[in-house]
Amino acid sequence: MSARSRFTVGWLYPDLMNIYGDRGNILTLLKRAEWHGLEPRLTQIERGPTTDLDGVDLFFFGGGQDREQSLIYDDLKEHKQHALENASQTGAQILAVCGGYQLLGHYYVTADGEKLNGIGLLDVTTQAGKRRAIGDVVVESNADLKLTPRTLVGFENHSGRTFLGAKAKPLGKVLTGSGNNGDDRTEGVVQENIIGTYLHGSLLPKNPHLADYLIRKALIRRGVDAGDLRPLDDEAELAAHAQILRRAQRR
Ligand code: GLN
């Protein structure tokens, strides 16, 4: 298989930032890439100096509790910031969930008042709130993503309340749940080649259309276009998606 059809997922801090089934996103990306006829690879990116991340097509940065976030945020600034900036500027994609999403923003102030400076790749800020947002979330995705179905489903569990700056567009509008902050009905963010979201669940197994959006976008820089990917039968995945929609409507 040619280098052109390789698809490399870079998993940031798999030991610390991996909560509420976030690993399911990695499994989904690798499996779908294989089914699409690509050659998937996984690079686990731990704490410490990082050598070559140029080959990574899609970075995944999962969630963690405040303790885990405080253990990695120095490392993120020192050893990963430059590589992530570079990668996203050259067309690699980043998907960040919850704690990872918060640390890609300007800062996160924990419930204890500790300010964890993020790396500012996303124009968002987060402050811990008094109430934890826990439960199913249904989102009407941003029309710019052209997703079919239009909805995204997931499960949130966070106290952080995130507010978007001018450069950050919402990933979608909350139909059920709290989303970014429980007030403005926005959920997540899309900013250039980065998606941030509060949706665990895991997110991608129940949202195969979002997984493929990320895979396709990541492969543009390799000269692979959507037509080169083998079409997949998503009946089982979309049935799981529909089940969450029904459960949310009953609430
Ligand atoms: N510690 C963060 C919060 O509670 C993130 C939690 C998470 O990643 N689930 O807001």
Question: Looking across the biggest beta sheet, what order are the strands in?
Answer: 2-1-3-4-12-11
Q: Which architecture does the CATH hierarchy give at level 2? A: 3-Layer(aba) Sandwich
CATH topology: Rossmann fold
CATH class placement: Alpha Beta
Strand content: 25-35%
How widely separated are the two ends?
49 Å
Report the structural category.
alpha/beta
Main sheet makeup? 6 strands, mixed
Dominant shape: globular
Q: Please work out how many helical segments DSSP would assign.
A: 5
**Could you name the CATH homologous superfamily?**
Class I glutamine amidotransferase (GATase) domain
The Cα radius of gyration reads: 17 Å
Please estimate the helix content: 25-40%
- Each distinct ligand: glutamine
Question: SSE string, helix = H, strand = E?
Answer: EHEEHEHEEEEEEEEHH
What's the count of strands? 12
Low-pLDDT parts are none
- Number of self-contained structural domains: 1
Mean pLDDT: 94
